[in-house]
TrEMBL record:
Pfam families: Nas2_N, PDZ_6
Keywords: Chaperone, Coiled coil, Proteasome
The protein's role, per its UniProt record: Acts as a chaperone during the assembly of the 26S proteasome, specifically of the base subcomplex of the PA700/19S regulatory complex (RC). During the base subcomplex assembly is part of an intermediate PSMD9:PSMC6:PSMC3 module, also known as modulator trimer complex; PSMD9 is released during the further base assembly process.
Coiled-coil regions, chain positions: 71-115
Cellular component aspect of the GO annotation: proteasome complex
Gene3D superfamilies in UniProt: 2.30.42.10, 6.10.140.1710
Record's protein name: 26S proteasome non-ATPase regulatory subunit 9
Similarity comment: Belongs to the proteasome subunit p27 family.
Cross-referenced InterPro entries: Nas2_N, PDZ, PDZ_6, PDZ_sf, PSMD9
Amino acid sequence: MAQPGGSRPVTVSDVQRLVQRKDEIEAQIKACYELLEGQKGVGMNEPLVDAEGFPRDDIDLYQVRTARHNIICLQNDHKALMKQVEEALHQLHAREKEKHAKDEAEALAEAMSQNQSLPQAFAKVNAVTPGSPASLSGLQVDDEIVEFGSVNVNNFQNLQNIATVVQHSEGRPLSVTVIRSGKKVHVGLTPKRWAGKGLLGCNIIPLQR
């Protein structure tokens, strides 16, 4: 595993290897304790001499001493390994957090550049009657109009401009461009007589800029 300041960043595989090694050490410690248990349950602290100070002859002293020594060494290894696992997980988490923040920043930058590249709207749809030509064309409430036939932000003066285009385009499709949910949408709108009032069936208000 790469150490802090090393050339290679920590990976999930590194952490998995460390955890596998931890499990192996824990299995070895368990085996050593079982060996001590088999030696009259001497454990780690039971005396290895009898009441008169002589080495006990009811247990394998060499095995007991070796097992105790191994347990101490393995516990130290386990402690060091747990620290490595903790550091590796911390590095992974920090890197994931950094990546998430970077992704968010990139998404924000993209959204901002998209907004900057959107054309300027001059009017807004604030009502659409169901079944009307406007409704059938797909025009929606809150659509911001950037082009309505020949009318755009550069030549728009008032709503009469739109009314004139509508009157001259009765029965003919008009190209209408709107901004909807931050995106540019093209709508084919054909002004025509219908059951309701006017030729569109929607209400348009000028945008105050």
